[in-house]
Q: What sequence folds into this?
């Protein structure tokens, strides 16, 4: 057993840290939050430096690295800035499905767009009537000659309105339930697509989240992604992988809040001494540091397994569940340590707290993660 | 008696400081080397040193390490001084290592104190950005020693210019320098001349963000002071170069010098002369600025500075 | 153009509490992160920009232990063509003079046009190594460079002198230039760059390869010895004001008033 990153992984960690330090500016982040603006310039620079889709093959603009390297980058990014970091996480969202199931033409076109900074992607799975339960879709695609005709509404779609294309899950066989679902890649400018906001969010304020309606949207047969009627399984497999990204987001966000709290307690004086000298506070710090270390271990291990051809759905669910849980806790406690300042935007921790909370909700709520874990533990009985 | 050769670079405060540094070695024979300069300047040096060796000025009248090496090396050969001393300034950085290498002498750089040992020299210098001090030594050198000292680290009692040293002109050693002077660039003068200000509020890296400059601007306004800054603040483009204090910036002589978020690197402190009343506000209790300041406050700049501004305005009515 | 750039890996001590270890000769390193010395990063960028303009080859060198190899990989990932790791157990404990001996031995006889250094290092901060090597190799040198251009066999360099002034010099190549921060905007290390260099074996040269006498380098060859490290007395001269923020500021105002500041 070897608990050490290899040389390239350490290099990547440092490169990501330096990039984030150089580009993620606190004042800019506050402004982007207030104006609900996606950090486009930073995203393009991140593409230029190869951070986006680094786990894609070289021919599609990636660097042939794996999920662990992706996790390391996202952790550093979110540690520096929970909002901009999350925006970088979502920029190539759902592209792993294209990578694993797409045709060569699809990969060539879409993956290169995403790694070169031409397009942001979006995954459109959730529907108003179904949240984390995707076993049955109201959105349909019906074959019409050489084309498909898509109708329906998707909601809580990250990057809706700013993305270049949607990776879409629809029902192609209404009778077959989850065995009748297929996936399509739909260009965002296709006629018949309409985007509406889902309303103001608690966090992730730089990233648009929308409701996307498809009305008689025609796509060519070549838009089918993967195997017809296997869409459900493709998405489940993707979630096993994408949970690693959310776990990394949670981990980085928690660490970022924690770092700011530690810096504060070392400097702040109350009742005649530095507040870091109070034992109650020291114990709190110790607990948080331990939680962070555990979340890091489980996340790295789950990513390592995925990269070593032993993907483990249970472990990736555990990583997402645990990292998300402690992200909320650590960010909340960090805010508490700053007292009144913790509640003030300028001190950043409240934003980390707001951004942390989503990691327990999106890409499978923590309850769904527990279902997955319990399912693996208990099996059939 | 041991010989010490002192290389004079600027003729204002430096000679007395170097004479003071030479005194750390007890009863020594001191020789000053200077290239160019006026007769009265040479007389002034003769008051501080036992002997003054005057080399011709370089043809372009500018500090040129190669030219100076050529003039000084024969002197080292003939004098064989125990120690060569000069300041660790930008010019010192340019000349000293080159000359130490060419004369094969162990070099102790940027010393803040010096001590003579029976078999050599020991010194204290700062490392890790001034957070740590290091005691170093060089001993048993057959070729003698070379030390550069920090500006302002050595001071001389008032009554020191009591010598009446001899003044000796040195012949010009011709060189075909591989390094040539083209021109001097003077930074564009800012709207203000901080070298003339009596009260300065100096801001350093600790201010953290350009948007935070406002609180120090307000403080300076309340105090009737001008803003000054450290190099990182200029590097980041938050203030213009004409407000930079330090060895690669301007030298100032205010009466009051109030620093905010300034760590106190020697490069910055090297630009503050005339012993102002110095106040330091910094978050880091270990910052070297507290060793230089008269009054120190450890605390949050963003609480203290606006409060200070408010109370100044109250007192001033 | 053949450009060599000498770089160093240093501990980042700017944001950690420093403790001196039991030997009194080193710092306790638990919380340190290491990276390329900031000045050296500017030197690497300067070298790469010259190569991009004039063609040629950039070689990065460092003297140090196995872990120090990371700064060479970093330089390669940024775009340097070759790297040379000068590493040998008997280099350990070298002073700046020893480092300069090692670098000079490695550079001697190389087809060199320009040799770049960062002016100082963030740890030792003595600013000697570049000058020592210039002296040992008998090359002209300019320190604290703030701009650097090459035209044929001549480099034009502006550099910082006293009093906020800059001087412009011409240097006959080959020459040594030590670089000041701010001379350029160093590029990031890209992920593609890291991929390109991952798995590359960086050649290592030791004392024998360089034809050095082991007694010339390392702790035994050090001309300047470290006797002890100690923390400077805190607030040595400053009167530290304490109390509530209100009390502190009131005291400060009294003191400012006494000293003619109001």
A:
């Amino acid at each position: 057993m070897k608990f050490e990153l290899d040389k390239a992984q350490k290099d990547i960690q440092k490169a990501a840290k330096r990039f984030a330090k150089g580009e993620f500016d606190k004042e800019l982040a506050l402004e982007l939050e207030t104006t609900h603006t996606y950090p486009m310039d930073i995203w393009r620079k991140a593409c230029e430096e190869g951070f986006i889709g680094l786990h894609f093959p070289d021919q599609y603009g990636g660097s042939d690295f794996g999920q662990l390297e992706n996790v390391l980058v996202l952790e550093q990014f979110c540690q520096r800035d929970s909002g901009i970091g999350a925006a970088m996480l979502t920029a190539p969202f759902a592209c792993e499905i294209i990578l694993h199931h797409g045709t060569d033409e699809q990969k060539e076109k879409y993956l290169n767009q995403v790694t070169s900074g031409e397009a942001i992607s979006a995954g459109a799975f959730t529907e108003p009537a179904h949240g984390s339960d995707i076993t049955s879709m109201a959105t349909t695609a019906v074959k019409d000659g050489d084309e498909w005709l898509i109708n329906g509404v998707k909601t809580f779609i990250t990057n809706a309105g700013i993305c270049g294309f949607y990776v879409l899950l629809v029902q192609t066989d209404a009778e077959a339930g989850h065995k009748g679902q297929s996936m399509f890649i739909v260009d965002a400018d296709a006629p018949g697509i309409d985007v509406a906001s889902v309303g103001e969010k608690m966090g992730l304020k730089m990233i648009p989240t929308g409701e996307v309606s498809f009305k008689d949207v025609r796509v060519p047969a070549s838009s089918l992604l993967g195997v017809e009627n296997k869409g459900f399984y493709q998405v489940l497999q993707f979630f096993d992988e994408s949970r690693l990204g959310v776990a990394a987001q949670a981990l980085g966000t928690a660490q970022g809040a924690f770092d700011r709290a530690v810096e504060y307690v070392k400097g702040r004086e109350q009742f005649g001494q530095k507040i870091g000298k109070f034992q109650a506070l020291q114990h709190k710090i110790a607990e948080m540091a331990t939680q962070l270390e555990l979340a890091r271990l489980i996340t790295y291990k789950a990513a390592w397994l995925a990269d070593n051809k032993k993907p483990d759905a249970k472990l990736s669910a555990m990583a997402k569940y645990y990292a998300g849980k402690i992200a909320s806790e650590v960010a909340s406690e960090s805010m508490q340590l700053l007292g009144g300042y913790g509640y003030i935007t300028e001190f950043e921790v409240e934003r980390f707290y707001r951004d942390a909370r989503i990691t327990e909700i999106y890409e499978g709520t923590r309850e769904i993660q527990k279902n997955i874990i319990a399912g693996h533990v208990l099996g059939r009985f | 008696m041991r010989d010490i050769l002192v290389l004079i670079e600027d003729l204002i405060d430096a000679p007395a400081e170097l004479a003071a540094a030479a005194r750390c070695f007890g009863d020594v024979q001191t020789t000053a080397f200077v290239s160019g300069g006026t007769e009265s300047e040479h007389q002034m040096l003769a008051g501080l040193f036992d002997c003054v060796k005057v080399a011709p000025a370089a043809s372009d009248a500018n500090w040129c390490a190669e030219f100076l090496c050529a003039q000084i090396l024969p002197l080292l050969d003939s004098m064989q001084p125990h120690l060569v001393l000069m300041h660790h300034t930008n010019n010192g950085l340019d000349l000293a290592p080159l000359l130490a290498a060419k004369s094969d002498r162990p070099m102790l750089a940027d010393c803040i104190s010096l001590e003579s040992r029976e078999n050599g020299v020991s010194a204290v210098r700062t490392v890790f950005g001034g957070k740590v001090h290091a005691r170093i030594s060089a001993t048993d050198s057959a070729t003698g020693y070379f030390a550069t000292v920090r500006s302002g680290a050595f001071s001389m009692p008032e009554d020191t210019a009591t010598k009446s040293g001899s003044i000796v002109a040195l012949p010009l050693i011709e060189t075909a320098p591989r390094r040539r002077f083209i021109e001097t660039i003077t930074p564009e003068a800012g709207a203000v001349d901080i070298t003339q200000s009596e009260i300065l509020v100096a801001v350093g890296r600790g201010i953290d963000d350009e948007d935070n400059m406002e609180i120090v601007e307000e403080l300076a306004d309340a105090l009737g002071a001008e803003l000054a800054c450290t190099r990182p603040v200029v590097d980041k483009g938050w203030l213009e170069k004409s407000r930079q204090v330090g060895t690669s910036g301007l030298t100032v002589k205010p009466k009051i010098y109030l620093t905010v978020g300034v760590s106190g690197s020697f490069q910055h402190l090297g630009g503050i002369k005339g012993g102002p009343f110095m106040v330091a506000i910094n978050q880091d209790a270990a910052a070297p600025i507290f060793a230089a300041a008269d009054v120190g406050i450890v605390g949050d700049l963003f609480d203290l500075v606006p409060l200070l501004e408010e109370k100044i305005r109250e007192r001033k009515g | 153009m053949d450009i060599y750039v000498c770089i160093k890996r240093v501990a980042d001590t700017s944001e950690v509490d420093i403790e001196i270890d039991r030997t009194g000769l080193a710092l306790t390193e638990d919380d340190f992160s290491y990276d390329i010395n900031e000045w050296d990063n500017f030197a690497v960028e300067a070298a790469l920009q010259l190569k991009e303009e004039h063609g040629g080859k950039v070689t990065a060198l460092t003297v140090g232990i196995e872990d120090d190899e990371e700064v060479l990989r970093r330089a390669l990932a940024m775009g340097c063509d070759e790297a040379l790791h000068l590493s040998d157990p008997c280099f350990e404990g070298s002073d700046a003079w020893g480092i300069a001996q090692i670098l000079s031995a490695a550079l001697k006889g190389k087809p060199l046009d320009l040799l770049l250094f960062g002016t100082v290092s963030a740890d030792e901060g003595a600013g000697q190594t570049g000058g020592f090597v210039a002296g040992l190799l008998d090359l002209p040198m300019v320190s604290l460079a703030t701009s650097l251009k090459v035209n044929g066999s001549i480099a034009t360099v502006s550099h910082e002198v006293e009093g906020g002034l800059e001087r412009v010099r011409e240097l006959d190549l080959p020459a040594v230039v030590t670089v000041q921060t701010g001379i350029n905007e160093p590029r990031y290390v890209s992920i593609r760059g890291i991929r390109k260099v991952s798995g590359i074996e960086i050649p290592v040269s030791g004392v024998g390869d360089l034809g050095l006498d082991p007694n010339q380098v390392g702790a035994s060859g050090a001309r300047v010895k470290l006797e002890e490290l100690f923390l400077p007395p805190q607030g040595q001269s400053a009167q530290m004001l304490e109390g509530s923020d209100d009390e502190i500021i009131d005291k400060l105002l009294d003191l400012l008033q006494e000293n003619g500041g109001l």
